[in-house]
Amino acid sequence: MNASKNFGKPKNRRIKGLSFNKMIPNILTLMALAAGLTSMRLAIQGLWEYAVFSIVAAAILDTLDGRVARLLKGSSKFGAELDSLSDFVCFGVAPAMILYLWTMQSFGRSGWVLAMLFSMCCGLRLARFNVALEDEDAPLWKVNFFSGVPAPAGAGLVLLPMILSFQVSEDTFRNPWVVSSFLIIVGGLLVSTLPTYSLKRIKITTKWILPTMLSVAGLAIISFSFPWLALSALLITYLLSFPFGYYAHKRLDAKPRDLEESNTE
Fold first, then answer.
1. Cα distances (Å, whole numbers) of residue 140 to 25, 71, 109, 148, 216
2. Are 69 and 88 in contact (CB under 8 A)?
3. pLDDT (tens digit, 0 to 9) for every residue of the chain, 265 residues total?
4. In CATH, what is the architecture of 20-255?
5. Rounded CA Rg of the chain
6. Model pTM?
7. What are the sequence ranges of the domains in the chain?
């Protein structure tokens, strides 16, 4: 009788709560998004240095959210989608808008087209990255490389003329022809298949832990004392690493083929 009364009634299901620790990565992503949006407001006000600082802050927060998610085991499909959308705004839309307001608007429609082109290249790069994550057949060494320039690095590279203008004559790097070349070249690097180093899975051996910590401490001191010089040096060093990443990727990619040829013989 009791069973017949309860038949057909929906069961009361308790909504499971979410641990605050697992919310931290998404909170960091939202903070990065806020920094990216704020950079555009600062650019509208003509506060160029603060606008670039906001992009740097977004890049730092974007770097932290993924690592914190892995440490706290808070990775989720929702977080991945939110991170991708945040990256597009912070590193695709915001830098293009900053450069357009800084100098590209003097080019009229052509300046707007180039700014949009960079944003679209960033969107395509992020879409390809999300699809590549689902490739389970990729060799393990592939995790040490990106295909093309990642979005945060692309934002830094395209803003390099503005960063250099903070240190030397502004007129030299504020030239719209110079900025146009950066928008086109960096946009091409975003959608290219050029292998670039990824620092996510690099492990430091025991004997190199102390030197690495001292190096990071020295870099932090220089960054606080001479922020624009340190950021410029970091971006230029990253550019110089492209040939090394290409040849390292090519060497590792050839190893499986060498093994196959030796087995067939």
1. 25, 21, 45, 18, 28
2. no
3. 455 555 555 555 554 666 767 788 889 999 999 999 999 999 999 999 999 999 999 999 998 887 787 777 767 788 888 999 999 999 999 999 999 999 999 988 999 999 999 999 999 999 988 787 656 666 666 778 888 899 999 999 999 999 999 988 777 899 999 999 999 999 999 999 898 888 766 677 777 778 888 888 888 888 888 899 999 999 999 999 999 988 888 888 777 554 444 444 4
4. Up-down Bundle (1.20)
5. 23
6. 0.83
7. 20-255
